[in-house]
Amino acid sequence: MGNLSVGMPPTIHPPRRMLQRHRVACYLAIALAGSLASVTPAAAHVGTGLPGGIVSGFEHPFVGLDHLLAMMAVGLWGAFLGRPLIYALPVTFPLLMVVGAALGMFGLHAPSVEMGVAVSVVILGLCIAFAFRASVWAAYTIVALFALFHGYSHGVELPSAADPVGYSAGFVLATGLLHLSGIGVGLLNGLRHGVWATRGLGAIVALSGCWFVYRALGQ
Amino acid sequence: MRGGALPPAFLCVSLGLALAPAERRLGMVGVLVLATTATVIAVVPIPRGWTDTAFLACWLSVALNSAIVHLPRGLGRSGAVVSSLNAGVWTGAMIAPATSRLDLVIALPCCLSMFLAAWICKRHGSIAVKVVSSWLIAIAVLAAALQFLPVTPGYLPDHIE
């Protein structure tokens, strides 16, 4: 992580109307993120297995905090990096996640998937916390690699008996919406001290990732 | 299970997104071609053995239409007609073996996503349309891969359990 920039990005002072618009969008994004994060594992995780359909596919990315944080972090980091990565990362992630899911579904053995998922949370959190201005290709590579791990762990769980098409649709849609909510939270950057707030969120994500790593080491 | 009305609905949505940047008149021609072809094919008795082929072709068409959204120039006149014809054939082929023709009534209106996408593109929101189309590609690739699986270990305890 030698290229991490610890300096604060240049402060931007957008016009008042734009700030108001951003503020409303921020409140909406925070409300959305809060409501998504409040889904309890006990209530939602019953969706895996045979009765899987579009609803259980949609619920699935929300119930694992590691997945949820990583996907929101992708959107948030994209918002930090600006164009073209603000939309390129949410485009790349689901596509590569599907490749990982296909590998999982075909039963290919992947070593330490849990560790890969946990490390992705740490790295993405650190990228946000240190405002890491990665080059386009570096950002693509990081996100693509982690997308494979996340996709793999979902792919091995894809239910075949009930409605696998609905399950896949729900799961990709939910992933995309998590990215969008991350981008929404990234709009905080337009507010006064907003950059510090998002970097603080990145630090929290990274710390949570450390817990996931610890848990994965214990398995 | 083949997803019921979902695959043809996704195909119609993807065609709508692909037609969004085209002229309004061309888009309407595309919708008309889609509706006519799908309705005709849906009533033709299709051999049961073709279901897998239709399913695969449907998802490949979803991926293709969604990829067209990312092209800088979008669809030309002939491209729009060919894409609509292709979408119509596979929409109809997916509906034909289904027990209910109601799926066609559910799927076809999804091509009206064209108007919503065109409205979004006019307001400089083409990025949103591209992001959604990439989700459709992801869904299509995943769904197309499903039928090549020897077994899906979905009944196993997952990584959280």
Distance between the termini of chain A: 27 Å
- What is the C-alpha radius of gyration of chain B, as a whole number of Å? 16 Å
Shape of chain B: globular
Tell me the number of strands of chain A. 0
Number of strands of chain B: 0
Run of helices and strands of chain B: HHHHHHH
Quickly count the helices of chain A: 9
Oligomer: heterodimer
Low-confidence stretches of chain A: 1-14, 35-50
Main β-sheet of chain A, in a few words?
none
H/E element sequence of chain A: HHHHHHHHH
Summarize model confidence as the mean pLDDT of chain B: 83
Radius of gyration of chain A: 17 Å
Class derived from helix and strand content of chain B:
mainly alpha
Q: What is the percent of helical residues of chain B? A: 55-70%
Low-confidence stretches of chain B: 153-158
User: What is the total domain count of chain B?
Assistant: 1
Textual characterization of the structure:
The complex is a heterodimer of chains A (219) and B (161). Chain A is mainly α. Chain A is 73% helix and 0% strand. Chain B has one domain (6-147). The interface between A and B is large, with 43 and 34 residues.
Chain-wise SSE layout:
The complex is a heterodimer of chains A (about 220) and B (about 160).
Chain A: H1 16-37, H2 41-44, H3 54-63, H4 65-81, H5 85-105, H6 113-129, H7 136-155, H8 164-186, H9 194-218
Chain B: H1 6-19, H2 24-43, H3 51-68, H4 77-95, H5 102-107, H6 113-122, H7 126-146
Helix pairs in contact in B: 1-3, 1-4, 1-6, 2-4, 3-4, 3-7, 6-7
Task: For this entry, give a set of tags.
heterodimer, A: 219 residues, mainly alpha, 9 helices, 73% helix, disordered N terminus, B: 161 residues
Could you give a short description of this structure?
The complex is a heterodimer of chains A (219) and B (161). With 219 residues, chain A is mainly α. Chain A has one domain.
